[in-house]
Each structure stands twice: as structure tokens, then as C-alpha cells.
Write a structure and sequence with these properties.
Elements: E1 2-6, H1 10-22, E2 27-30, E3 48-51, H2 57-74, E4 78-79, E5 86-87
Antiparallel strand pairs: 1-3, 2-3, 4-5
The chain binds zinc ion (ZN).
Zinc ion binds near residues 82, 83 and 99.
Length: about 110
């Protein structure tokens, strides 16, 4: 068994489990209580999701990476640094003046 995801928030772990199952990956939940830990959290005791088959491990990691990176960051509207137009998150340059999106990681 190969652990692919661990979090104190069992709701998140449950969600990840559903996500992987919907992709046809066999998963096993460990330390699963169905409710969030309210006492002092011990990382070793956190609920976690494992994949049963080693062949699925890389794919499972990829699915999770895509899932957690994609929606919030990529789709948010951004303001053009040049002409201050609001640009839809799917575009990487301004639809009005073609200025590239300012990358906050660069500065
Ligand atoms: Zn612009």
C-alpha cells in the first residue's frame, strides 16, 4: 500500500478518496474516523488515503496535483497591470492590450 494523501481534515481526505475512486483507482482509508480530530492533532494519527496497487500510485499523485492546483489559482480573474482591465483566468494575456499576466512568483 502506498500513501498518497494525508491531512488532519477528514473531510478533505474523504474527498480525495472519492476523487481517486471515481478515476477507477482502488483506495484504502487509514485512521479514518469520519469526523475531524479536535484534540491535539498528531500527524501519525491523521486520516490518510492509500492506493492498493503500486501501478496506480503515480497516476493518483498526478490526479491530486492537478486537482489541488487547477481550480482556485488558474481560473480567478486578474487585473491587467497595464490597462487595468479585468481578464478572465483562462487567459494568460490581456484580451484588450495583450500585456502578459503579471506573475506574482517572479517579483
Ligand atoms: Zn490590458
Amino acid at each position: 500500500m502506498h500513501e498518497v494523501f494525508r491531512d488532519w481534515d477528514s473531510a478533505k481526505v474523504g474527498l480525495v478518496n472519492q476523487l481517486l475512486k471515481s478515476e477507477g483507482i482502488q483506495t484504502v482509508l487509514r485512521n479514518w474516523t469520519g469526523s475531524n480530530i479536535t484534540e491535539v492533532p498528531i500527524p501519525d494519527m491523521f486520516p490518510n488515503v492509500c492506493v492498493l496497487n503500486h501501478e496506480d500510485f503515480v497516476r493518483a499523485r498526478q490526479i491530486l496535483t492537478d486537482y489541488f492546483q487547477a481550480p482556485s489559482q488558474a481560473m480567478e480573474e486578474w487585473e491587467c497591470p497595464k490597462c487595468q482591465e479585468q481578464v478572465d483566468g483562462v487567459f494568460t494575456e490581456c484580451w484588450s492590450c495583450q500585456a502578459p499576466k503579471e506573475d506574482p512568483q517572479k517579483s
